[in-house]
Please model this.
Amino acid sequence: MTHTARRIGRTLALVLPVVLVLSGTLAVTSVPWAGRNTESQMLTASTASTENVPVRAKSRAPQDVLREKLLTDLQQKDPGVALTNLQRAVEGRPSLARHCMEIARDLGRAAVARYGPTRAQAFSRPVCDTSFAAGVSQQAQGNWGS
Model:
C-alpha cells in the first residue's frame, strides 16, 4: 500500500503543477482585454499580435500638468489669475514648491509674449520669490537662460 500511495503522490506532484499552469494560462488568455469591442476576443500566447495592443499613454509629471494649465489660464484670462492659481496649487500640494520658481518664470515669459513687457510687469506679485518678475525681465531682454 505504501508503494502505491507513493506512486500516486509522485504522479500528482508532476501532473498537478502542469494542469494548474495550463488552466491559469487559458483563463488569462480568454479574458477580453480590449472590452470596447462588442465581439468576444480571445488572446492566446501563440497567436497574440502587437497590432491589437493599445499603446499606454505616457504619464506626465504633476508640475508639467500644472504648468500647462496655468499657461492656458494666462492665455484665456490674465497672468494674475494664473499666479493666484499657482500660489493655491503650491499651498495645496507642497511637493510642487520646488517647481514654483520655474513655473512662475515661464508664466512671466509667456505674459511678455502676450501682453508686452510693461503690461506684463503690472501683473507681478511676490509668488515663488518674485520669479514671475524675473521671467518678465529675462523675456524683455531676450535672455531665455535661467
